[in-house]
Amino acid sequence: MAWNMLSPTIILVRPQLGENIGMVARAMWNFGLRELRLVSPRDGWPNPAAGPPAAGADVVLDEAQVFETVKSAVADCAILYATTIRQRDMLKEVVTARRMVEETSPVLAQGQKVGLMFGPERSGLETDDVALAHKILTVPVNPAFGSLNLSQAVILCAYEWFQSQTDAPPCELHGDYEGPATHDALEGLIAHIDNDLSQGDYYFPEHRADAMRRTLRGIFTRPQFTTQEVRTLRGIIKALSGNRKS
Amino acid sequence: MAWNMLSPTIILVRPQLGENIGMVARAMWNFGLRELRLVSPRDGWPNPAAGPPAAGADVVLDEAQVFETVKSAVADCAILYATTIRQRDMLKEVVTARRMVEETSPVLAQGQKVGLMFGPERSGLETDDVALAHKILTVPVNPAFGSLNLSQAVILCAYEWFQSQTDAPPCELHGDYEGPATHDALEGLIAHIDNDLSQGDYYFPEHRADAMRRTLRGIFTRPQFTTQEVRTLRGIIKALSGNRKS
Lengths: 246, 246
Fold this sequence. Notes:
The structure is a homodimer. By secondary structure, chain A is an alpha/beta fold. Chain A is 43% helix and 14% strand. Chain A contains 10 helices and 7 strands. The first copy, chain A, has a 7-stranded parallel sheet. In chain A, α1 runs parallel beside α7 and α5 crosses α7. Chain A is globular and about 60 Å long. Chain A starts with 8 loop residues before the first strand and ends in a 6-residue tail after the last helix. Chains A and B meet through α1, β5, α5, α7 and α8 of A and α1, α7, β8, α8 and α9 of B.
């Protein structure tokens, strides 16, 4: 199979065992996913322990990119999913793997990146990582036994994507849709608002500031604003802050 | 979840590694499959190596049945599938996991057994084993890298079966979702922004003002902000406009 560039990017956040990274690579390549990103892997990278379990999916390991922070790893993603089975106190849409594949197909078709974040084996993603995502990706499992192995969680997403490539009718959107802005552009908007708010007395009382920042992030992340919308919003913020000395 | 007896039976033919049997048990129980049969496992049974990778799916291991021959293990199956990726010189229907789930649902509903056979890790099923099956079960994979780990092959079948059992909505919302704000509340927000912007030079040039207002309305309407989000946004607008004389 010629590799289809238009496939999701797997982002492992602080993965612990090299063996699991290798199994993830194998699972990805079984279903034609190739782009793997590692955010500060516990045992460094490259990690020889990943080789044997990859069972020949060397191309995925060889091309894996390493990042120090989640933010840098997701910067170019137009849409970002956090996988988690725990309930979070965040207003985010929760979608199944199958649904994710359906709804990202027009985004991928435009050459934009779709990021799927998976947390460390033991603990899963931290709340601050989940907060970065547009949506939560979940796989309905036996409620009495929900602990999916990391590579199993990855293979189910990869499998669903591959199924969509072989069967499903293409999905399209009405209107002149340019797709969501990159994560970087979104961060720029959030930083802009945050900066302007920090100059007044918005973040008060002090001990509520973190929660207020998370709320703000949630409000501006969920809508999946397009690049043009982000640009307009920045213009609006600038105009609103206009007469203030900054 | 109460266990649904009406689920496929997983039959591992001459499995080699205890670790893999444990991972298969975990994969099965993740998706509510409970009945595991082992045909002459290489290292005997019970095998302590299976415990840790099962990660708590002990019920599957404890109830696993051991058989000496494939024929005895499949004797009570009403329909039997052989999983294989190799081409066989046999006239048998080849179905995907999804199709298998669809077509076996009436069989299971009658209390009959559906058997899914998986071969040894290294070599897969022998031709004589495949010959026993009614059909061949296959999962379309990357033709360049078709080697699925045993537990991965099992989980994909279990996953498809579980999907067919749940009417889980493809997407829902995490967090305390109160639904979108009323139209009135939204209008209040838009009027608030519009008012503040009108006091600066945002709507310039004049003849573009209507289009700019439409864009602004679009941006704040599409996300279906909740009442709480609208309230927060108004706080943000107020803070941003803060030092301005209004």
